[in-house]
Amino acid sequence: MRHAVLALVCLALAACDKPAPGSATKQHLVGTDASYAPFEWQNEKGEFEGFDIDVVSAVAKKAGIDVKFIYTPWEGIFGALDHGDRDLLVASITITDERRKAVDFTDPYFDAHQLIAVRAGSAVARFEDLKPLKVGVQTGTTGDVVITSLQGRNSTNIKRFESTPLALSELESGGLDAVVADNGVVANYVAHHAGVKFKAVNDPQFAPEHYGIAVKKGNTALLSKLNQGLAAIKADGTYDRLVAKYFGTAASAAR
Ligand code: ARG
């Protein structure tokens, strides 16, 4: 009986399968490896915070979609998208040709490059100096790719970690000579661990990287909504406000 009534109401409204914008629309699940400050982390209350979180929230608002962030470990993040457990991913993900084979990316929303973290007394001055050293990276990141290309596939000096903070704390405790990760994350860590005396070492040889939001391959409907949302937040000043909030200047912003 209830079903019959509902069916009638639906017929009357002729819109039950297509909720009007702003009404109870499908919730889009956003996978994020939230251990990558200042881009994504979880505060004491478990709430998601960071540049990526604010960007996607603002994009979603413009695009008229509802989003819910879910902590998703980096190692399973692309699989979660592929299996349909997540609708989109935001995790400081560098757009690479390799990944493009498996997922679709929005237009780039941020520029980055690799950066080396070492203890302050370290003699490391450029990337090549890492060749004989014990270097920590987060498994499967672009940091992993660059150090693997320097030291070779069979190097036993590359230490791979589930998360970048784990690699950095191993550096802190003396188990590593260096960590290679995205510039924003290394710079943030060095700035917040002044007592431990880290320094960041750059190398002009690090390639420019661009972050994108990922959707399942072929999900063009969602992709175009996200791209429209991105264009809208770049046009109305929201994007610039977020860059200023997290990075002070627009120096590394992708425009
Ligand atoms: N940009 C790098 C990459 O795509 C590192 C991203 C790691 N992100 C994270 N949330 N842990 O490989």
Low-confidence stretches: 10-17, 250-255
Give the end-to-end Cα distance, rounded to a whole number of Å: 56 Å
Tell me about the largest β-sheet: 5 strands, mixed
- Rg over C-alpha atoms, rounded to the nearest angstrom: 21 Å
Q: Strands of the biggest beta sheet: in what spatial order?
A: 5-1-6-15-7
Total E-strand runs: 15
Number of domains: 2
Continuous helix count: 9
Give the helix proportion (percent range). 25-40%
The run of helices and strands is HEEEEHEHEHEEEEHEHEHEEEHH
Ligands bound to this protein structure: arginine
The CATH architecture of the largest domain can be named as: 3-Layer(aba) Sandwich
The geometry reads as: globular
Task: Write up what this structure looks like.
The chain has a five-stranded mixed beta sheet with strand order 5-1-6-15-7. Strands 11-10-12-9-13 form a five-stranded mixed beta sheet, with helices on both faces. The protein is globular, with a radius of gyration of 21 Å. Helix content is 35%, strand content 22%. The protein has nine helices and 15 strands. The chain folds into two domains: 24-111 and 209-247, D-Maltodextrin-Binding Protein, domain 2; 114-201, Periplasmic binding protein-like II (D-Maltodextrin-Binding Protein, domain 2, 3-Layer(aba) Sandwich), CATH 3.40.190.10. It has 255 residues and is an alpha/beta fold. A hairpin with a 3-residue loop joins strand 2 (35-36) and strand 3. It binds arginine.
